[in-house]
Specification:
By secondary structure, the protein is α/β, with parallel strands linked by helices. Helices cover 35% and strands 16% of the residues. Pfam families: NMT1.
Length: 324
């Protein structure tokens, strides 16, 4: 039986697959732990280090455009609304989205999916001119060469959280996409809160009631931002065209077992909260269930110069993907 090296985040809905309780037909799963999982993205895109790896959807499509031999199955392990992800500096005076024009905004790398979703939200919902903002980054993009002229790289080792606290940034994204670590992207991804804890009068959110706005946006647009698509080395699919279907079925069964044992998502309360916001499954799998959001992600990536108009072509490997 062939072995599949699999790198995934620490989600309750994949544990049965990683443990072998839910098998991938014809394969033995060999879990590879990478914490945080975003540390695996570049290794997969640049070195094809794993057989199967969770990837940011925008990074995946950019990699396919660049000719990296990857394909995907329509399993999105993580979803997230981003209205709470823009934090303004304590002395910035920002009170509305349009106030971000002419300002410096921190994001780990220009092409991170959270950045793409936030920029789309700001432009499409609030009319913010993205080219009037300076995007300050402290890390490389997984696929390089697509950033616009209004991107500035910080190279002095200070984190985005420190820059926001000092007033060198007017605003920044949160979490792994921005201020969620104290050190450099390579050295300090697990030291999440140190900078902000030291701030005293810290940053404040751009949107005061993000959950209310997120639900309104979802009800109007049907877009529920995608994260963490499952990518496979294309060579494996060429060798075994049944692998995508088998892998999808295993992910679906692993999720089904988790939901059966924990229908309220107490093991990951954020998804429980998101289930209430969307009025249903917080992480639907399948092509049809994800089509509006997948097309929105492609549109935003193209609008922001990260994808060409005809890219990435096919999103998923040929396979059987009933909604799950």
């Amino acid at each position: 039986m062939s072995t599949l090296s699999v790198a995934l985040g620490d989600y309750p809905h994949v544990k049965a697959l990683l443990s072998g309780d839910v098998p991938v037909k014809g394969y033995t799963v060999e879990p590879v732990e990478v914490k945080p999982i975003i540390g695996a993205y570049r290794r997969m895109i640049r070195d094809l280090e794993f057989d199967v790896c969770e990837l940011a959807p925008v990074s995946y499509t950019m990699a396919v455009q660049a000719g990296v031999p990857l394909t995907a199955v329509p399993v999105y392990l993580n979803r997230k609304f981003h209205h709470a992800d823009v934090q303004c500096g304590a002395a910035s005076g920002i009170s509305a989205p349009k106030d971000l024009e002419g300002r410096r905004i921190g994001v780990r790398a220009y092409s991170v999916s959270t950045g793409v979703w936030v920029r789309g939200l700001l432009r499409e919902e609030y009319g913010v001119a993205l080219d009037k903002m300076t995007w300050v980054v402290d890390d490389e993009d997984h696929v390089e060469g697509r950033v616009p002229a209004n991107v500035e790289h910080i190279t002095d080792g200070r984190s985005l959280g420190a820059l926001l606290a000092s007033g060198d940034l007017d605003a920044a994204l949160t979490g792994n996409a921005g201020t969620g670590r104290a050190g450099s992207p390579r050295a300090g991804w697990t030291a999440a809160a140190t900078d902000q804890e030291a701030q005293g009068a810290g940053p404040y959110p751009l949107f005061e009631h993000p959950d209310v706005i997120a639900r309104d946006s979802y009800l109007r647009t049907g877009v529920y931002p995608l994260h963490s698509v499952i990518a496979i080395r294309s060579e494996l699919v060429e060798r075994d065209p049944d692998l995508p279907t088998a892998l999808y079925a295993a992910f679906a069964e692993s999720k089904r077992r988790q939901v059966a044992s924990d229908p309220g998502w107490s093991a990951l309360p954020r998804l429980g909260k998101q289930a209430r916001l969307v009025g249903g499954d917080p992480i639907p799998y399948g092509v049809a269930a994800n089509e509006p959001s997948a097309q929105a992600a492609l549109r935003l990536a193209r609008d922001q110069g990260l994808l060409d108009a005809d890219q990435p072509g096919r999103l998923y490997a040929e396979g059987d993907y009933p909604d799950a």
